[in-house]
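seq as requested:
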Amino acid sequence: MKKAFWAVPAAFALSLVLVSGGFAADHGDAKHPAPAKHDAKKHDSHAAHAPHWSYEGPTGPAHWGDLEEKFAACKTGMSQSPIDLKNTTAAALENLKTDYKAAPLKLLNNGHTIQVNYAPGSTFTVDGKTFELVQFHFHGPSEHLIDGKPALIEVHLVHKNDKGELAVVGVMFKEGKENKMLASIIKNMPKEKNKEKTVASVNINATEMMPASPAYFHYSGSLTTPPCSEGVNWSVMKTPIEASKDQITKLSKAMGINARPVQPVNKRAVMETK
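struct tokens:
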């Protein structure tokens, strides 16, 4: 497999403290992973009744599984995310199918990430199942690694079907030209936490978050934040999209470091398109 062609600047990379997370192992077929059921809009959200968790110190990733019984999978789960995408198996995976529509910009700073809540009507099809785009949010640096290397930013597009099953698409960012959609998001980022901000004058289309190349990695994993529920159908695009240095800096500053360390792959098969 070709090496990733982007990297985190040394100063930024050194600021990421790699604490240990839970363990991961075989969970369903990598091409047809067993899906999870949960609230897609609460993925990476801090529910009011949940215990405080963070990305560092005594409430950081190494301790998530001990903070609350419902977070046990963060410690004992056998198919955890994110992972280092290496030692993959080439397979004849079907092209991912997206049908994303324009939607008004709805932003939320939930204390862990900058999240864009998406209006109903946009769909994603993988493994013969169709899911609706519910929201997308950002992590900096990337949570998934490709051949051991992180990207500057990773966006997670979270989809849910009528059975409550989740499918998430991960897309990496590299430094390059300005990203128009990201410009709108950064300009309108809410300062107040946990309160959705609607910018009715701005329409976005999640298609702009997808690279031109259809190549991707595929595996069965979990949410990357508590409760770390498993059975999530993961597709991580192999080709990054671009954002300017200034955009990456501003988004990273707004979020802080919010990447869970990679989890062991163990017996899981990680597939990639031929």
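Residues 1-36, 44-48 have pLDDT under 50 and may be disordered.
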